[in-house]
Amino acid sequence: MNVLVVGSGGREHAIVTAVAKSPRVDKIYCAPGNAGIAELAEIVNIGAMEFDKLVAFAKEKAIDFTIIGMDDPLVGGIVDVFEAEGLKVFGPRKNAAILEGSKAFSKDLMKKYHIPTAAYENFTDPQEALAYLETAKMPIVLKADGLALGKGVLICENLEQAKAGVKEIMEDKKFGSAGNTLVVEEFMTGREVSVLSFVDGKTIKIMDSAQDHKRAGDGDTGLNTGGMGNFSPSPFYTKEVDEFCQKYIFQPTVDAMAAEGRPFTGVIFFGLMLTEEGPKVLEYNARFGDPEAQVVLPRLTNDIIDVMEACVDGRLDEIDLQFEKRATVCVVLASDGYPVQYEKGFEITGLEKFKGQKDYYCFHAGTKFDEAGKVVTNGGRVLGITATADDLKQARAKAYEATEWVQFANKYMRHDIGKAIDEA
């Protein structure tokens, strides 16, 4: 098979790495890719939102299967465009990708189908939002309705912060049109857990749980980011939690989308909060998480092409999804200043130390080749240093050991990824 992966981050590097293990795959292309992906796939200089060019390329190269990694093209309807041309593609159609594309839609869906989530209200008028906040309990959560690179969520400790947040999202348009509608949500306390799943429209198969670290600084301080590190499985995602989620969250979500005439095919990412009243949905994503993919996919023992094809063909019930009974930790190496302002273009050294290593991965997120052919930084999140071991503590130690193997100017990371493991 010829396979095309669309995207350019650490998630896509993890997907390409999994695809490369498949004996069914002859050639992998990635558009637009990055310097790390270039070791496994031929890089194609087409942007993820250039649908017509991607379709033309898929036809020209006789691509048998396309995998969409990123949220923007999914929400924009890339799957519909590929399917209209008779091309086989993995990911939700536009009318199903709205599960991530609109937080207001997903909250209304959960309310309608009694899927546990935080109490909320949706607003399109900033004055109405401000009036509501006057009587609301603090702290409170403000969410831009649309896509905002994982950063469109503000946790406000008091009324003053909440009012400033409404101005930032709805009036100043910090997240652009994503802030045309505002979701104001009750603040939930508990542990956050991420669960990825494969879905074929009716059947859902759960992957191993993971736990993200969204804030930029140690101790969960600083601004929200796309994710500064992750570990899997989460010791807090117990058998009892799983049984509850299977019954009241996972399958009900798939059934709800089907009932709405929006059958979901692809990956649903469930962001969960384990509250005192039980698990509740924080958010849905319509694709692999980043860096969740980096800690879950390395332990997938199935051929990923088999699984994804079964999703597209509506026969996921035939797949026995299996993962190695090991643990994985990913520590993100970022550019200092992320997620606000940072410099790019610094040479990265030490990457060769990962070659031939069995339990270590270096997933490239924001990298490219400079004119001299050297690998340089090209984003806020640069690398996902990932290690696998028999248990989480060993994996954490190995991952942090490996962060020292690579160097670049303005290298920044959190030092407490997976620290919650000690409390489990």
Automatic annotation (TrEMBL):
Cofactors, names only: Mn(2+); Mg(2+)
Catalytic activity: 5-phospho-beta-D-ribosylamine + glycine + ATP = N(1)-(5-phospho-beta-D-ribosyl)glycinamide + ADP + phosphate + H(+)
Known EC number: 6.3.4.13
Residue ranges of domain ATP-grasp in the record: 107-313
Gene Ontology molecular function, alphabetical: ATP binding; metal ion binding; phosphoribosylamine-glycine ligase activity
Alphabetically ordered keywords of this record: ATP-binding, Ligase, Manganese, Metal-binding, Nucleotide-binding, Purine biosynthesis
Protein's GO biological process: 'de novo' IMP biosynthetic process; purine nucleobase biosynthetic process
First and last residue of the signal peptide: none
Pathway(s) per entry: Purine metabolism; IMP biosynthesis via de novo pathway; N(1)-(5-phospho-D-ribosyl)glycinamide from 5-phospho-alpha-D-ribose 1-diphosphate: step 2/2
Enzyme class: ligase
PROSITE patterns listed in its UniProt record: ATP_GRASP, GARS
Pfam families: GARS_A, GARS_C, GARS_N
Source species, domain of life: Bacteria
Gene3D superfamilies to which the protein is assigned, alphabetical: 3.40.50.20, ATP-grasp fold, A domain, ATP-grasp fold, B domain, Phosphoribosylglycinamide synthetase, C-terminal domain
Stated family: Belongs to the GARS family.
Listed name of the protein: Phosphoribosylamine--glycine ligase
Organism for this UniProt entry: Agathobacter ruminis
